[in-house]
Amino acid sequence: MHGKYKTLLDIVRIVRGNTLAEFAVVSALMATLAATAAPKLSALSETAKAEKSKNELDKLLTQARTFYQKTQDEEGRGRFPGQEKFDRPVGNYGTQYISLAQALAAQTDVADDLENFTSYTSNLGAKWRSVFGISNTTAPLPGGAFVTNDIHYSTGAIDGSQEGTDEWLELFGNSTLFSTYQDGHFIYVVVPGGGSGDNSFPPVLYVADLENPGDFNRTFEP
What we know:
222 residues, alpha+beta, four-stranded antiparallel β-sheet, 8% strand, elongated
């Protein structure tokens, strides 16, 4: 009886020893897998953020297209949110009563600046305007950014426009789109249109995510 009891203890010891060893091996494997997977999961997370940002920019363009078509029907010439008229700029690219050559040069300036506009702290932000407002509690402007709000100026002609922020908010039913990035914020500029009759040309809209406007931007030219 004593021999059988001793044998049973030996078996338990062996089983316990193997179980602990297996547990140690499994733990080590799990730690290795976790360390290997962490960078991939992080990359997937960043990819998801980027796709979300681009999708929101596409939504801005969709609503801007609707706004342009509506104002074209009601005002005779289409414009974008924040424009007092089709030939007024929003932001610091182009001027009122612009020529086609000047408009094309301004578009080139936007494209060139976007190549260097890779951080929310860039002073290039001073040329851009906030889509939903720099003090919007849902999507506030990150500290250290230079972006400002659009300001409405009376034109003395067709003057049904408001500040750009108000017109964007109306387009989205007073709901704010926000970037998934900590330093993100949606911004825009409009290079004005000009001319008349057969020589007319439309304004061009640019929207971007302030996290990295160079990587996250969209353009709409009617």
